[in-house]
Amino acid sequence: MSSFNDTPGAAPVSLPQWLRLQAQWHGPDVALRHKHLGIWQVQTWAQVADEVGRLAAGLQAHGFAAGATLAILSRPRPQALLAALAAQWLGGVASLFDPLQPGAEQRPLLAALQPEFVLAEGLEEVQRLHMAQLAPKVLIYLDRRGLSASEAFVEALDYAALLACHPVDEPGLQGPAQHTAFVFYREVGQAIEEQRLSHAELLREGQRLVEREALGRQEEALAARAFASAGQARYLLAPWLIAGFRLNFPENLATRDRDRRELGPTLVAGTRETYTRLHGYALERLPLPGSWARRLVDWALATPSGLFQRHLGHWLVRRSLRDVLGFSKTRSPLLVGDALAPETQAFFEVLGVNVRHWSDSAHWEVPVQPVNTITDDWTGRQSQLA
Amino acid sequence: MFYREAGQFSTRYAQDRRVFALRQDRHGLAALLLVAFVVVPWLGNDYWFSAILIPFLVLSLAGLGLNLLTGYAGQLSLGSAAFMAVGAFATYNFEVRVAGLPLLLSIVLGGLSAALVAVLFGLPSLRIKGFYLLVSTLAAQFFVTWALTRFSWFSNHSASGVISAPPLEVLGLNLDSPAGRYLLTLTIVVVLFWLGKNLVRSELGRNWMAVRDMDAAAAVIGIELAKTKLLAFAISGFYLGIAGALWAFAYLGTVEPHGFDLNRSFQILFIIIIGGLGSLLGNFLGAAFIVLFPVLLSNLVALLPGGLVDAGQVENLQKIIFGALIILFLIKEPEGLARLWQRFRQRARLWPLRY
Amino acid sequence: MEFFFEVLIGGLLAGVMYALVAIGFVLIYKASGVFNFAQGAMVLFSALTFVSLLERGVPFWLAFVISLAAMALMAVLVERVVLRPLVNRSPITLFMATLGLSYVIEGFAQALWGAQVHGLELGISDEPLELGGMLLSQFDIFAALTAASLVLLLSWLFNKTRLGLALRAVADDPLAALAVGIRLQRVWVVVWTVAGFVGLVAGLLWGARLGVQFSLSLVVLKALPVLIIGGFTSISGAIVGGLIIGASEKLAEVYLGPFIGSGIENWFPYVLALLFLLVRPAGLFGERAIERV
Amino acid sequence: MIQTAATHLLELNNISLSFKGVKAITDISFRVAEGEICALIGPNGAGKSSLLNVISGVYQAQEGHIRFDRHQRRRQRAHDAAVQGIARTFQNIALFKGMSVLDNVLTGRNLKRRSSWIEQALGIGRARAEDDRQREAAERVIEFLHLQPWRDVPVGKLPYGLQKRVELARALAAEPRLLLLDEPMAGMNAEEKQQMSRFIVDINRELGTTVVLIEHDIGVVMGISNHVVVLDYGRKIGDGSPEAVRQDPEVISAYLGTRH
Question: Given an 8 Å threshold on Cβ–Cβ distance, is B269 in contact with C96?
């Protein structure tokens, strides 16, 4: 199943190494899809590895070295993901921030962290940095639109321009597996807490998931909303690199439901919000109460008792409802983080989608040292414990 | 509820442009064609071929011809039958006057002649719109039938201007049998509908609809109204011409100019109103209705106890119901039967959700 | 020369008939913006009703009144069943609706009264009358006079009565008319009734000529070029247009016929109308609106 | 006169227009610099729309002439204007209601077509490759104006504000050098207005398109335009930078004083 078996000699110990391995063994296979300009734009493993390599080179050229942190403020987009990998490629750390979080909550966080290297998606994100009085050493943007006006723009770098550099080949060897891959921050009252994920931990968790869910190359995964979360890194990114399946990005938040149906993912790693929202989405669109159609639907969705109800209900309602929601191919519906409300769990249960819960073993701690310098002993400890 | 769409997505624009984007639809169409080309000729009897299927196909084609002009390009026409007549008589003349000209080729040439005539009578559309255009198309209607009866040359000097079908032979195989004529018609209709589908989805098709929906805006964004309208007339004429040829030779066998009178034009207009303006499927639905409805009605009347409705009244009854239906459709479903189908399909794709 | 004038006069008198049908057209177009293709069917229906009543021994005036009542009833039905549901739809849609309507009316008329030709004798001798060296049919003159008086009646109706006022208001600006409390529906009913009445008269005159039969409903096809030339919105235009068409088609038949063949009166009016259009797109009396964008 | 140094893309000289003897525009002249956003303001019936119609070739001026880029002209068809690179939107939306958003945008690109209709109908030759290019270009416009969620919706079914945006998209798809917007924000709420102004500014900045727009909301006008021309009763009564115009007493008395 997982390409772990067909790796020669030593197994990769970091995410970038897995990436390089996938590129070596399955270069032409599809690694990423992004719904953009009306169609699903495809990137192969080879292309992904190459782009990450170039990015790494670009970052290096601007002084990004092992141990540095790249703060990423972007919606789920391939570029954001590749940038994170590029940072790790150089032995650095990626720190993800969700731009959909209210700026008010994020501002103090960013202000306190004062990251030196920042990737911001576009104008809004850049403005958010400004409000946090951030003056990063290096500012990279994905979408230049409207930026020409803002003053921060002067020294900012275009993601596309970074790609011009020549790829660095020897990836991620600048550091043992205990190196931190991702770090997440949150503010609790006045204190700032951090959560560090080492390559080793990610790979271990990922490997566990891959084996438990028997994930293979043929999986289609949808990277939806909760991008900037540890769970996403654990249960989507790591397995993606290990099992070598396809990671898909919707066109944008407004179209994600349509996109999910188009794509028909086999692996869905969602949070409680994801499933709750979908449940609501379905409920508000079901036939109006009182109509014969609604009675039929309710009858079919009632926990099937008789053989008759099970089969007829399946063919008339459940089968198509599952398809409309984009779950008709889903093998591994995963829930990361908090548990689902019972009715939501039940709703998907009836559709034959039994959402499996993976508790996000989050270790939030108050940083031992100033956050913009790296310490690895903590994560090291973690890996020994496990 | 029969649609499973998950996993059907396009990674290239070509896939996205496909006429039938969904696998289920493609399979359905394939099955339909299989039935039409293999099962039907094998099972069908002569009555069905000659009295139902062939006229149905030909009228669908004629409907498409008018629909391109009226439903897509928004140019109202009451002269459809005239262009059919031109097609029929031109084909006939190519057959009798040019020795050894293959049948299909002379049919195409017939279509082209009809296209020419259509362009001629379409010229006024460059200056006039709406009802005013009716005059031009009616002029075509009356002038053509007059000319064809008046000058016996067109009917090769046959008495009373009746022309009769040449032997229907394509690539050496004889198609004079009902089944043969059915297959000939079916093939031509399928090809022309495929072409029509491409047309309406192409730049030209969009320009037509632009002119239909708001010609002032169309001009402002750089669409050449004259070219667009005239092409609509030409292509519509081409389709109607070929339909006329098939009507004459594959369906009736012999025909005179008055077989293509104003009522025929109305009939075709009704086809697209009932079937659906600006829809390809609609032409089939409308034609099926027009062909089957009288049959059904007369059968129904036959069922009634004798003398309740005498045969003479059936025709009047037909007229009344037809007229009433037209009004009903214009009020209730201006986009015709096709719209009903589309709506059902939309629901089916989203079932059990509402939107 | 006499011959020319006889042809001309004959044509003009035929034109009077066209004009009569066209007037019915104009009335409805002005009041409800509907391009009423069913006008011909109305002519047929009214005339057919009238003669069939006569044949069943109903006295002339009673028959006339009954036919008129029938037309009024039809007007009400049309307004209820066709116009009201289709209010503020595109003109093309309304036109196609009247196409359907004409089918209904024709079918109904024939189902009711049968399809055979009915002779109609209005009791006016068709003796030729010597006038200034020309032979004119008395009947034609009678027809012309009837038409003339009808037009006078109509113009009185529209210029002197409250109804006329309302109608002109509606014709100018339906919304404004509504605003000042004119009931559109009622105006429509009245107008369609009046159009029916005009149709009846036209039907009788034609019927007396060629017998009352289905072909009556085809006059509508002649009315179209008349309207093109006269303009859809002008009664006087309809009259002038009718005369032009009538005269020109007869002259063409007589003088061009020999060269390009008989029966050209079937299409000549349309070609003529087309020529007019290319020169004067709004007809002789019509108003052309500037397109505002 | 402003920016005489800058190259002028559009130049109106003594334009006069009248309908059936009624003067709509009297002897108006002004110049629009390449790359600026120029606002036409003035009370209703001041002749703003008529002027836009003259520039885009919908109406023909009786007197005066227009210079666009290098083309000097008195009268021209709307089609020629489009060919020269002038695109526009209409005061009351003039979309093709029967067609989807994508199709409407695609119609905007019809002048970019090279392959013949026959090639397209038979799907041969350069037609297919061109279809891809056209679609991609249209999609870029759709993305630029954030219309992705409505790509396949018939425009007739869209709310007013969105229809305005689609019409802008259609004009933009033609890759115009001059964009004429006739009250792009009429009947919009504050939020929609702000978004629309954002789009207009982006178009001007990112794509370098010169914009001439008619707008009643003075706040918006002063906010986004760098050149204002004031009309009143078909005459020009003010012309200059927003600040200059705001000071101009004649303008104040004629317009700014009285809200419309």
Answer: yes
CA A266/CA A328 separation, integer angstroms: 8
Cβ contact, residue pair D98, B209, below 8 Å: yes
Distance of CA D18 to the CA centre of its chain: 22
Q: Write the ipTM.
A: 0.89
The three-class DSSP label of residue A191 is: strand
Identify the closest residue of chain C to D49 by CA–CA distance: C293
Q: What is the pTM assigned to this prediction?
A: 0.91
- Per-residue 3-state assignment (H helix, E strand, C coil) for chain B: CCCCCCCCCCCCHHHHHCCCCCHHHHHHHHHHHHHHHHHHHHHCCHHHHHHHHHHHHHHHHHHHHHHHHHHHCCCCCCCHHHHHHHHHHHHHHHHHHCCCCCHHHHHHHHHHHHHHHHHHHHHHHHCCCHHHHHHHHHHHHHHHHHHHHHCCCCCCCCHHHCEECCCCEECCEECCCHHHHHHHHHHHHHHHHHHHHHHHHCHHHHHHHHHHHCHHHHHHCCCCHHHHHHHHHHHHHHHHHHHHHHHHHHHHCEECHHHHCHHHHHHHHHHHHHHCCCCHHHHHHHHHHHHHHHHHHHHHHHHCCCCCCCHHHHHHHHHHHHHHHHHHHHHHCCCHHHHHHHHHHHHHHHCCCCC
Query: In D, residues 61-120, which contact C (CB 8 Å cutoff)?
Result: 90-91, 94
Using CA atoms, how far apart are residues D2 and D66, in angstroms rounded to an integer?
18
Chain D contact for A291 (CB, 8 A cutoff) = no
In this structure, how many other beta carbons lie within 10 angstroms of the beta carbon of residue D151?
Answer: 18
Q: Do chains C and D touch (3 or more CB pairs under 8 A)?
A: yes
For chain C, list residues whose CB is within 8 angstroms of any CB belonging to chain D.
Answer: 290, 293
Across the beta sheet with A267-271, the strand order is A39-44, A30-36, A246-249, A220-222, A267-271, A332-336, A356-358
Least confident of B242-256, D61-75, D102-116, D190-204: D61-75
- Write the burial class of residue B47 (CB in 10 Å: 0-12 exposed, 13-18 middle, 19+ buried): exposed
The single-letter DSSP state of residue C203 is: H
CB contacts, 8 Å: B112 with chain D: none
Smallest Cα distance from B202 to chain A, Å: 18
Q: Which of chain C's residues have a Cβ under 8 Å away from the Cβ of D94?
A: 293
Is the Cβ of D175 closer than 8 Å to some Cβ of chain B? no
Q: What is the pLDDT of residue C223?
A: 83
Report d(CA B27, CA B38) in Å as an integer. 16
Q: Of the candidates D94, D117, D128, which has its C-beta nearest B203's C-beta?
A: D117
Going from the first residue of chain A to its last (386 residues), give the mean pLDDT of each consecutive group of 10, the final group possibly shorter: 44 88 93 94 95 91 89 90 91 88 82 89 88 86 83 77 76 65 84 87 90 92 73 86 94 89 91 91 93 91 78 89 93 88 93 84 67 42 33
Omega of the bond leading into C225 within 30 degrees of 0 (cis): no
Q: Cα torsion for B264, B265, B270, B271, to the nearest 10°?
A: 80
Unique residue bearing structure tokens 């490759």: D129
Interface of C with B (CB under 8 A): 35, 81-82, 85-86, 89, 91-93, 95-97, 99-108, 110-111, 115, 221, 224-225, 228, 232, 261-264, 266-267, 270-271, 273-274, 277-278, 281, 291, 293
Give the gap in angstroms from C-alpha A299 to the nearest C-alpha of chain D. Answer: 33
CB distance D99–B206 less than 8 Å? yes
**Which structure tokens are listed for C104?**
């209904």
Which tens digit of pLDDT belongs to each residue from B71-93? 999 999 999 999 999 999 999 99
- A16 and A85 in contact (C-beta within 8 Å)? yes
Instruction: Give the per-residue pLDDT at B245.
Output: 96
| Rounded-to-integer distance, Cα D15 and Cα A190, Å | 67
